[in-house]
Design a protein that fits this description.
2 domains, alpha/beta, Rossmann fold
Length: 377
């Protein structure tokens, strides 16, 4: 999105970042002049935002999926473009957390919009539907259908991991990563890189505890590095974050989904398998949690209630008695999914369904705000 902004204007732009620890890694290759942490207490955020935008001379803002920050910016007099990449997630219980009156609300197109989500978005005053907010240049590197079997080089993506309400972010990789590496080794993969918001040290420790006959490297990747490694791998094994699935689809990379680590990833994995026309997603054993139970909880109490069930189930699955059993079950499911993927699929179908021009569209909305701010009163 930042690259799209620079490409579409000759005027000098200065970027200041707020709040996102994950975003700092992802945007490391872009010229963000300064990052600011925001207070942990929600009640202190509006004042902190007012101080920052005043001291930095901020004229417009773009916020991804953080409704509280978007509201604070608007209250401070800063016109804000809110990017909602998960519009299919919301129910009436989530309405208060969404910035429905923001200057521009960009909802990313999706393959299915539940009725309860549609009702929430009907109250958005400035709704704009945009295509996927990804690097649309990735599609230029799209590989021919069927290329890449047998798989020998894998990219394992664990995503952000450190959600705000998650008590222990290490649980998911402790259970899932050994299963993923064991399945890849059994399949015949010779080398794998483990990416995501996870230091290399814990990966090395897990590999030492459960050795596998393949070469494993690990470490976070800035966005350009991730795309380069994605283009070079034979198969992506990913925690089903939507942007990751869409970028892989843009390149036509065979993709198998790891079990979901949050509510949105249940939807993402289902959307992906349905679009590509192949059963290539792994679900948790029923004693961790059942997806239909999670979705029923969401309908009653919104995202927070569903996350309690997900996080609690994953945490219990990592216990000393259950951890190895859960990993073994996931490893068997993942190996089966890898073998099913060999039959081929329309790996770009999800990306084609939602388009790839969202970054340019969001940039256009933000630049429009800046141009209007420059006009005489």
């Amino acid at each position: 999105m930042l690259a799209a902004l620079r490409q579409r204007t000759s005027a000098p732009l200065r970027f200041v970042g707020l709040a996102s620890g994950i975003g700092r890694t992802v945007l490391a290759g872009h010229a963000v002049e300064r990052w600011y942490d925001l207070p942990a207490s929600p009640g202190e955020v509006p004042r902190a935002v007012r101080d920052i935008v005043r001291s930095q001379g901020v004229r417009a803002a773009v916020v991804v999926l953080d409704g509280d920050v978007a509201k604070a910016l608007e209250s401070a007099g800063i016109p804000t473009v809110f990017v909602d990449s998960l519009p299919f997630l919301w129910t009436g219980a989530d309405r208060a957390a969404l910035p429905l009156e923001v200057s521009v609300y960009c909802a990313q197109r999706c393959v299915d919009l539940p009725d309860e989500s549609r009702k929430v978005l009907e109250d958005v005053q400035t709704l704009r539907w945009v295509e996927a907010v990804i690097d649309d240049g990735a599609a230029a590197a799209r590989r021919p259908a069927g290329e890449g079997v047998p798989y020998r080089r894998a990219l394992v993506s664990l995503g952000g991991l450190r959600a705000p309400r998650l008590a222990d972010w290490t649980v998911y990789p402790r259970v899932v990563l050994p299963a993923a590496l064991a399945a890849l080794a059994s399949y015949g993969v010779r080398e794998a890189h483990v990416a995501g918001n996870l230091p290399a040290g814990p990966v090395a420790q897990l590999v030492a505890e459960r050795p596998v006959p393949l070469r494993v490297t690990a470490g976070p990747l800035v966005h350009g590095e991730f795309l380069g490694m994605l283009a070079d791998c034979d198969v992506l094994v990913a925690s089903p974050g939507l942007t990751t699935l869409l970028e892989a689809g843009g390149m036509g990379v065979p993709t198998v989904c790891l079990p979901p680590q949050n509510l949105s990833q249940i939807f993402n994995g289902r959307f992906h398998s349905r679009a590509v026309g192949a059963p290539v997603r792994v679900t948790w054993p029923a004693d961790v949690f059942r997806e239909d139970q999670v979705l029923a909880m969401r309908a009653l109490g919104g995202e927070d209630s569903a996350l309690e069930l997900i996080y609690g189930g994953i945490a219990r699955s990592a216990g000393e008695a259950r951890g190895p059993r859960t990993s073994a079950a996931l490893g068997s499911r993942l190996l089966a999914a890898l073998r099913r993927s060999e039959a081929g699929a329309d790996w770009g179908a999800l990306t084609s369904a939602v388009g790839t021009g969202g970054a340019a569209q969001v940039a256009g909305e933000l630049l429009g705000i800046l141009r209007r701010a420059s006009l005489p009163a």
